[in-house]
Prior knowledge:
180 residues; alpha+beta; 3-stranded antiparallel β-sheet
Amino acid sequence: MEKPRVYVGTYYKYSMGSIQGDWLDLSNYENKEAFLKACKKLHKDESAPEFMYQDFENFPKILYSESNVTEVFEYMEAIKDMDKDMIEAFNYFISDVYYAWSNVDSMKKNFESSFQGKYTPSSLFLDTELEFTHQYVESHEILKGLDENLHGYFDFHRYSQMLFTAFYTSVNEFVYTLNY
Length: 180
């Protein structure tokens, strides 16, 4: 995963018509305080700089603020032990499923209870939702007791529509429950 970065300028310089600043890689700093110390050093030409985070890269837009980086450091703490796929799934969760940011512990808890997995479409089922539905039907033994000859008549499309209208949602290949 690429490292979260922000472009750090100051409100004073901006109001004077300058966007002078620099890109800082947030993962280079142990915590927010160390980052702010680096920002002060960067803008040492001002006695009391008010930092302005003018642009960002490599973290969800919902966490971006031009005046605060607290949520980004919380986010970095939340993802530090996740692999690439889990980070991607977490990013979709906070950007496209949950639509809100609260404290890091509740976000991770909501994500972990909602996340169902990554479902890559197969040659049999050409989309994520149908792939999930097929595995759901198998794991919940929904066709158990039904004559084998009738399994081919089960309407996975309709069942998938029902599941993804009421109980689940998907973003790219990731599936989440709607009740977190």
